[in-house]
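Input (structure):
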């Protein structure tokens, strides 16, 4: 019979091996989630611009580290009130926000959208990590504030979800000259959404899962991996509007909006709007967003199954898939004008309260 010392040694070895397997599995899961390309360009881009030929557009390329990012500016004829830089959400590309950009362009603003590294029309083999969007947003601001066509315009940020966090925290990188920040359904911190997902999957083991991912992020991004929305907004010298649905179905209202609100208590230049319902993407009505999500799932499933079955079955599935894509694109055209009207009022208010030259 083995002695007590040997038993202790065996237990320690088993625990170490279990921990090693767990952390290896965690790292593999991390790479599976982040070491991928984001949403690629689709035909919606061409469809959108065919619907709005009156829009003036100009495309740009600008650097973010070693990556070259794609950007586009939309505007209408007439004097421009300012430039709104829209920062897209997790793994999306700028296409989803084109209808909102058109709304602001009609309201007298130039609107600049860009794809983050590893996403859409931008360079980069993969997304790499959550702090990457913060770096890319800083690169976009450096670009527009140096470009002659934008240099005389007041610059505003509108960030959604992952992009909301980037818009909120970007002032940690540099003292950008911003005239207003609109934060919609934003993460409190870069790792926040990952922690929430891990909790749902692994329960009490979630912190152990997040730890290796956190280490990787700090190695890759240094201090930028730890910046929070409150830190960035605390450094931003401009009006801020923070918006979040009370029952957001994607990102916790309590763990993100409430933390931001608590951290900025007492700031007279920060407004808070607690929207009703479950919507995460407040630029479109919730019933439309739900239908779009369903279609995305069905289309992805159809794409995975497109090689299965006989020729007749595959032809029918291809026809069905094309029909779902067309419906999806039509739904992406729909915006929530009431909500966007409140966003426009915020930007207009920022302009009205700017010091007169």
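Output (sequence):
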């Amino acid at each position: 019979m083995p002695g007590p010392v040997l038993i202790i040694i065996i237990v320690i070895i088993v625990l170490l091996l279990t921990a090693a397997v767990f952390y290896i599995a965690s790292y593999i899961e991390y790479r599976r989630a982040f070491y991928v390309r984001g949403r690629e360009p689709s035909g919606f881009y061409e469809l959108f611009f065919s619907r709005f030929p009156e829009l003036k557009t100009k495309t740009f390329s600008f650097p973010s580290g070693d990556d070259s990012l794609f950007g586009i500016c939309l505007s209408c004829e007439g004097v421009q009130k300012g430039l709104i830089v829209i920062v897209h959400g997790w793994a999306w590309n700028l296409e989803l926000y084109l209808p909102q950009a058109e709304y602001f362009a009609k309201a007298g603003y130039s609107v600049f959208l860009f794809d983050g590294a590893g996403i859409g029309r931008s360079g980069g083999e993969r997304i790499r990590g959550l702090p990457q969007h913060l770096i890319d947003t800083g690169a976009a601001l450096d670009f527009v504030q140096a470009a002659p066509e934008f240099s005389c315009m007041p610059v505003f940020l509108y960030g959604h979800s992952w992009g909301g966090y980037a818009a909120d925290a970007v002032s940690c990188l540099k003292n950008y000259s911003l005239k207003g920040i609109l934060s919609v359904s934003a993460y409190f911190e870069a790792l926040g959404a990952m922690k929430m997902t891990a909790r749902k999957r692994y329960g009490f083991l979630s912190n152990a899962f997040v730890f290796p991912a956190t280490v990787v992020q700090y190695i890759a991004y240094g201090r930028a991996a730890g910046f929070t929305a409150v830190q960035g907004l605390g450094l931003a010298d401009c009006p801020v509007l923070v918006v979040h649905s009370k029952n957001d179905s994607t990102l916790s209202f309590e763990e993100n909006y409430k933390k931001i609100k608590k951290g900025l208590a007492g700031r007279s230049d920060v407004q808070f709007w607690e929207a009703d319902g479950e919507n995460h993407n407040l630029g479109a009505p919730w019933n439309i967003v739900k239908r779009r999500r369903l279609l995305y799932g069905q289309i992805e499933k159809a794409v995975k199954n497109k090689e299965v079955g006989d020729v007749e079955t595959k032809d029918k599935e291809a026809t069905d898939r094309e029909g779902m894509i067309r419906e999806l694109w039509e739904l992406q055209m729909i915006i929530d004008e009431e909500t966007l009207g409140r966003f426009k009022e915020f930007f207009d208010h920022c302009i009205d309260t700017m010091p007169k030259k």
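Notes: Residues 308-312 have pLDDT under 50 and may be disordered. The domain at 35-190+227-284 is CATH 3.40.50.1820 (Rossmann fold).
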